[in-house]
Amino acid sequence: MHDLFNHDRNDGRVVYSVSGLNQDVRRLLEGAFPLIWVEGEISNFSRPSSGHCYFSLKDSDAQVRCAMFRGKALNLRFQPKDGMHVLLRARVGLYPARGEYQLIVEHMEEAGDGRLRRAFEELKRRLQAEGLFDPAGRLPLPPLPKRLGVITSATGAAIQDVLTVLRRRYPALPVLIYPVPVQGAGAAEKIAAMIQLAAARNEVDVLLLTRGGGSLEDLWAFNEEVVARAVRACPIPLVAAIGHEVDVTIAELAADMRAATPSAAAETISPDAAAWQTSLAQQANRLHQLMQARLQRWQERSDWLNQRIERHHPRRRLQDSSQQLDLLQERLERSLQHQLRERLRRHEQINERLLHHSPLEQTRRLHPQLEQLQHQLLAATQRQLQRKSQVLAFNAHRLDTVSPLATLARGYAVVRHSASGQILRRAADATPGERILATLAEGELQCLIETIKD
Cys-Cys with 230: which of 90, 117, 192, 246 at CB 3.0–4.6 Å? Predict the structure, then answer.
């Protein structure tokens, strides 16, 4: 833990540590700015494995670093990329590890219709605070309408869709069309005047305010305050079906009932065997809108409270650590790639040296010398065998000279006792009647001694 500053004992100067200075600057930035809207162009966008988004937001003169952490990035409805023009809702902060000022992004949207959407949200919050969207003031639809009034363009596709559905579901329902322009200059005032005229004439028991789909700018007449107040003040139950299902206008929020499309509105108004199921679905939709409005109010209050506790919240430290972890991960990857390249280079060098000193190469170079040594060994072996053969023949001749076998071959015999096998050297050593063995050069004789001569 670093001290924020140290007092110099000699002259009383206040000396900040780097981390202490960054923490103080961080608190000043976060305390001076609430949640703000910023518009600009994305550059250097990256999204590592942690799920966080890091990028720069720039215009023609400046840029600022931005971080959008994983929990908020999961709510994105589009894929950010370099060059995209976006509108951010963010907190001003500072990343202490690098002393870098940055924006912590809470919400991001494409900036094509950003100004209109901000105006839409501001008007929505103001009218909602007045209770203009309060469901308690909405009028119920008649279960069996006697005549339907449709406020729309007489030549648009919406009226054709409505009439097609009514012909299929309830052809007996009369339809009275109140033609109005549905976009362009002055359209909102004309729509509000037509609602008031239909209410004054009181010719129908349910009104349908509708038009086909389009961009936010095309639908803007139905987001004007004059239309919303005329819709809310209408004494006749009014259903609003503006654009496609994803389009929600101020007029629809103020109406007694909202339908996703003109065809869906016609199905809601006209009787049908599945009318009760449709009614339940509409009630669930209204409940969802009420919950969304209440959640939005509590979210705004929560954002205000979060600014007060953010400096002590563990999530902040985790976010800083997560950024530092991403930076360390990038450095680790670069280091591993550098080490891998060095190992590959060393491997190639060792492989070249190994090939140069390979046993196969040495064997190839020593093969002629080996053949020469083999020839020399063979010649030396033959000479040695020849000398040994001569010595062996000489010794065999000498041995043959003194061999008893040579003596036997000249007609002599070796006489032994038959029983003991001892050699008889004197006649006196034998006895008459004894058997003896006489060994000749070829074979043996068994003899019987008859007489002995001295």
Answer: 192
